[in-house]
Input
Amino acid sequence: MRKLNGIAASPGIAIGTVYLYRDDVPRIPRYRIREDQLEAERNRLQEAISRAVVDIKAIQTGNDSEPNGDEYKILDSHRMMLEDPSFQSSIEDRLEQEKYNIEWILARTVKEMTSKLGMADDEYLRERTTDIYDMAKRVLDHLMERSRPQLADLDEEVVLIAHDLMPSDAVAMNKRMVQAIAMDAGGKTSHTAIIARSFEIPAVLGLRSITRLVSGGEQIILDGNHGVVIIDPDAETVEQYRQLQGKLEEHEARLMRLNNLPGETTDGKLILLNGNIEIPEEVEGVMNHGADGIGLYRSEFLFLNASGLPSEDEQYQSYRRVLESMAGRPVTIRTLDVGGDKVSPQIDTGSEKNPILGWRAIRVCLSETEIFRTQLRALLRASVHGKLQIMFPMISGIQELNRATEILEEVREELKSREIPFESDIPVGAMIEVPSAALTADTLARKADFFSIGTNDLIQYTIAVDRGNEKTAYLYEPFHPGVLRLIRIVIDSAHAEGISVAMCGEMAGDPVATVVLLGLGLDEFSMGAVGIPEVKRIIRSVSMADAEELVGTIMDMRSASEIDEAVRTYMHERFQLDTL
Ligand code: PEP
Ligand code: MG
Output
């Protein structure tokens, strides 16, 4: 039996069998080559192409597929593309000019081809991007000698152990079969943690070396409430955790009875409690947990899969589906926020030296304006199906907000001239997740219809601590006085201009922070749906006067640890947090 402590990233207890996912992110290597290595790289390409062609033929004959059948024809078209001399020479030309390893050159060439096709008006041409990716993937697999296990294909219940998972892996995995997730890497606000919470999958992250301690098949207990993992537990420990599992279930069932009640303080202030989602399938969970609406739909998850940029129509269908399922409750859709740890295969943000400070979110949208306009068109078209709010991520100052709203206005004009209907009074908000935005919130509040504070990034940028790095996770302090002061500035500036403030970062779903946020004046909380009942329970048993008093005490304290201890003690005594 071996016990490990990590970061409690998603609550719940699982007792199951280890599945070790060894093949992490298929990062495409990138390194310079010399003139005298060109020939060797050309030979590697030829060999990988020949092996990919052999694979295709083997599938065609192995499947006994009809030579006139669809699958056969698709595979044939892949083979012809691979054998096409102009395809090969475009890669070789690029190799000679740029002198990088052949994997990188191939990936760049393919990206260029697909982004051109992805913009085509013709649906047929746009669909060809998938074929190009499939074909290129076969060659890359041979070049990198990997064959990637597919988490989507999991067909028995497992506790998934990985060094790190990309958010796209986490979304694609067969979630019904993943009882829990444990990783070497990651922090509480990394996107994998967020997705695990959204899907109610218990997770412990930042374990540093768990992948070296298991080989697959071991029994394992994972306690996502306390950040504990126990490998090869003895029978007594298993029994203890089974009992704890039962108590947690009872506690949850009690909380669910609050579902139809409002989030109202004892002195009558009504607080909206919303859910965060990444994909439309999560709406059901949001509704089941008694949410008032959706406070954050991370639309970029439509852009993270490898099969090309989503078309306007695909986006429209997803937005429409969410708006319709929420049946008139407000739905805040955030425009594309790729970059950082969310890498889209079609938008090249991954090769930067410092992606967290680099080309991400609104910065991408304001330079790739066609992608942005397509998304805005889809959003406006969908607006007639529900109560839409649009918000822009990573706004750092007024120019970005002005430019984004200007483009939105142009798209409105375009739809009007084409007589395509859309709602005329869609609220447009700014996410406040960069310190410069928080400090200029007074200016932004004159332009925006609402704010939503993204504490995951706001904390990261205020304390200069990577939100996904387990080594510095101890510095990631939501109760840092610097963070609390910024939140106060944002809320006060917004209220002075008469606009409301939501919070959609993970702090909003942390019950320890609920009373502090209430006391600071937050109007709306948005979180992974599972967190709503507990936050509601607290809101319904405290008055604004008490919450303001608590804030009055802690704002004079000097350090994060002092505030953290005071708030935890208060919350524990008054609301019996952490008793399970
Ligand atoms: C945030 O930064 O708090 C946020 C909600 O956005 P994301 O986690 O997607 O960066
Ligand atoms: Mg963010």
